[in-house]
Amino acid sequence: MAAINDSDAERYQKWYDPDLEEVNPQIRHLLETYSNIRPADVVSHVNKIRARGFAANPYPCIGNYRFLNLTLLTHPLYKSIISKLQSNSFAIYLDLGCCFGQDLRQLVLDGVPSSQLVGLDIEGPLMDLGYELFRDRGTVESKFVVVDIFQGEAQGEPWTELVAKGADVVHCSAFFHLFPLALQVDAAKVISRVVRKGGIIVGRQSGSVKPAEVPAIKAGTTSFRHDLNTLAEMWENVGMETGTKWKVDGSLDEVGLQTKIKNAVEDENSRRLLFTITRVE
Ligand SMILES: C[S@@+](CC[C@H](N)C(=O)[O-])C[C@H]1O[C@@H](n2cnc3c(N)ncnc32)[C@H](O)[C@@H]1O
Predict the structure, then answer these.
(1) From ligand 1's centre to the CA of 121, what distance in Å?
(2) Which range is the signal sequence, renumbered to this chain (predicted)?
(3) Taking CA atoms, which of 99, 151, 199, 219 is between 20 and 30 Å from 179?
(4) Helical spans, DSSP H, in the chain
């Protein structure tokens, strides 16, 4: 992210919550069992990593601890994603915008070979902090690769290598909603080239009952919040422009939005958008 000026720094503090005194049971379980962190040390460990992550990249999902919500775990296809990956050792899962790689680690805990899982993010320092959060630098076999999705094939390897192999599951949570609609289309076109026929793109992001461009994290920029209709329209256009075809399923709900009234990022139209986008052609 570009240099942070004083007014940006003040804005970012709006979504920097006070240190936590407890974490949710799912992430506690992951940190205690996968990472072998002593129960008494879990909260202070998380608080320290959150502070360092926010200094590297002041995203709301880091400042407000949303990265502790293992959302892939709540996706209706979670169990079938595990089976898909376990039943075929060539099946590949990409976690685009993986941040610390929390959902990827949950898959490993749930029995998916880590060598089939790849974390992708534009911010190498966040993926690096993921090794510290989960204390698995020497054990996890997943690759964590710095990519800028907007560069697509122009960035050469390893992106071109990923496209050549293809992916069966692409997890993209809290990712598309960072960008205005035109850039979401650009990103979707790049992603469309990596997903194998029959493959899926799954995730959750900020949605809205009134789809529109809204002010984004960086002052003066916008990001588009979808409902299911605008999401389906976007993928229909992506399909037409790329010679592919997609089926969009999902739901808008209020999970995780209880604090929306005092939240600096959401408004009364905000909803959680949970989606599955299947490549049918
Ligand atoms: C809001 S965070 C979401 C992290 C995680 N998926 C989650 O649900 O908690 C968005 C992530 O996308 C990454 N990102 C932003 N722009 C990107 C780009 N152009 N290419 C790849 N990753 C990008 C950010 O660095 C950040 O880690």
Answers:
(1) 6
(2) none
(3) 199
(4) 6-12, 25-29, 42-56, 60-63, 78-87, 102-109, 124-134, 159-165, 181-192, 228-242
